[in-house]
Design goal:
This protein is of the alpha+beta class. It contains 4 helices and 12 strands. A 12-stranded antiparallel sheet has the order 1-8-9-10-11-12-2-3-4-5-6-7. A hairpin with a 5-residue loop joins strand 10 and strand 11.
Length: 220
């Protein structure tokens, strides 16, 4: 019994200490974080990584876990000089694929066939937009879209976004981005929906400035 109580107390102390490490960022720290993320994004022409997506539902006791790969590139990785030429491919290992190429978006079935679903596109378009923020900091400090609060600890920067735009507010109540304090790239995204359900996306095995075939981002 004493051993169990000791374990519980130790765990509580550990989590309490961990939580205490995370503190609100000062104005100077916020300016530094914005600058470092922008600098990192400027140097990143392309990126590939693995992701793990965990869905926590208030109605279900078990978590839904999905895995896949993400591909990202900017105009600097192509022959065009278009300013807004950004593309991202979000590919589930055993499910759908979502492709964003500039302002165009397409959903592919597991068989690779195009599918149009307005409701699905709206929801996942915002998911993809959130991932773009995690990759290149896009719209992170856009006060017309979000109210941003910054936190820091020894190893990470935390940016909590509260949606301002009605369309986003109707889907999400908050978005938290976690960046590495070492390489200034996104590591985790936690999205809380209006229903209270949460989607947590963790990025691993990141490879920067690698060659990606343009076919990955083609809209059929």
């Amino acid at each position: 019994m004493k051993k169990i109580l000791f374990t519980i107390c130790f765990s509580l102390c550990f989590f309490w200490a961990t939580a205490q490490d995370r503190t609100p960022a000062t104005a100077e720290q916020q300016a530094m974080i914005k600058a470092k993320i922008a600098e990192s994004a400027q140097k990143t022409n392309s990126m590939t990584c693995d992701f793990v997506q965990t869905k926590k539902s208030l109605l279900l006791s078990e978590e839904a876990v999905s895995k896949g790969k993400m591909f990202y590139r900017t105009a600097n990785n192509t022959a065009t000089s278009a300013v807004n030429n950004i593309a991202l491919r979000w590919e589930y290992a055993d499910g759908y694929t979502f492709i964003v190429n500039n302002d165009n978006m397409q959903v592919l079935t597991p068989e690779g066939k195009p599918q149009n679903s307005v409701k699905m596109n709206r929801f996942f378009k915002e998911i993809i937009n959130t991932m773009l923020i995690a990759v290149n900091g896009k719209d992170m400090t856009d006060q017309n879209k979000y109210t941003a609060t910054f936190y820091v600890d020894k190893n990470h920067w935390y940016i909590n976004l509260i949606p301002v735009q009605r369309e986003i507010k109707n889907m999400f109540s908050s978005i938290e981005l976690v960046f590495s304090a070492y390489d200034h790239t996104g590591e985790r995204v936690e999205i809380t929906e209006k229903s209270g359900d949460k989607t947590i996306i963790t990025l691993t095995n990141k490879k920067l400035n690698v060659k990606i075939e343009e076919a990955k981002f083609s809209i059929k």
